[in-house]
Amino acid sequence: MTRAIGPLLLSSRLLRALALVAAPAWAALSAIPAQAQFALAVSPPRLELTGKPGERVRDVIELTHSDARQGEYTFKTADWTLKPDGSVDFSDELAPGSCRPWVAIERREISIAAGKPYRYRFEVTPPPGTPPVECRFAVLIEGKERTNAPGTPVAMAARIGVIAYVAVGDVQPVLDIASTAVKLVNGQNQPILRIRNTGTAHGRLAGFLNGTDASGARLEFQPATTPIMPGETREIALTASKPGDADTAVAVRFPVTVTGSLEWGKSGSFKVNERFAQ
User: Fold this and answer.
1) 8, 118, 166, 217: which is deepest, by most CB within 10 A?
2) Strand pairing report for 159-168 and 133-143
């Protein structure tokens, strides 16, 4: 069961970018209709921390309520799983090997006035003798006010899940390419890397690849930043853009050749030299 905590000494730096609850993001929203929303911004949308057995890790989640009325919110921890499509399932029940018993949260209910950020505190204490492991959990924030979404007879409350990873001891991802494919993603065919993680922590790909498609056009490819969990193989799409304009995706004429290097973890990387054909 999640514990409540008393005063904490806070030393961690917060990521400054706000993640609005209304914006769809796999790490933030649970499967509740978008019409049932609350006026809350959360920073950071996820936390990646390090710890040692027997030592307490402390951090904060910064909450900003934008409605003129005072916001009433509840808090709890949850386990979670990442589905193949990148969405998240949250679970109140303790998963096998869950580290949630190590987690203490500040309080279960708070009221937040508009305009003044609230720094919500939590801590994680791995027991002495804990072997190297990546502790993963979510802090679920739910609005007390319930609304009826169109077409739903039951009033629901929106909620957001802030994902936390705590690396206890020496844990690292180990990523490599298991295979490749071309698949339809958001209505367009895209190159796919099937990435295998044989390490002990989650990993994400980062970087840009160079490519040339069937028309001879030079393109840049950026991998999706979806996490790959230890022991799993996950499909990671490569989004094409014009060189120097990474924010504008373009359609790819297959076949396409993609080369370069992608990074993962603290110092891991691998080379890519693949030909994708429909």
Assistant:
1) 166
2) antiparallel
Fold of 3-168: Immunoglobulin-like (2.60.40)
Q: How many residues does the chain have?
A: 278
Residue 206 clears pLDDT 80, i.e. is over it:
yes
Residues 21-52 have pLDDT tens digits of 323 333 333 333 333 346 889 999 899 999 99
pTM of the model: 0.83
pLDDT (mean) for 127-139: 98
* Partners of residue 50 on adjacent β-strands: 167
**Fold topology of 175-276:** Immunoglobulin-like (2.60.40)
Predicted confidence at residue 67, as pLDDT, reads 87
Distance from C-alpha of 2 to C-alpha of 78, rounded to nearest angstrom: 9
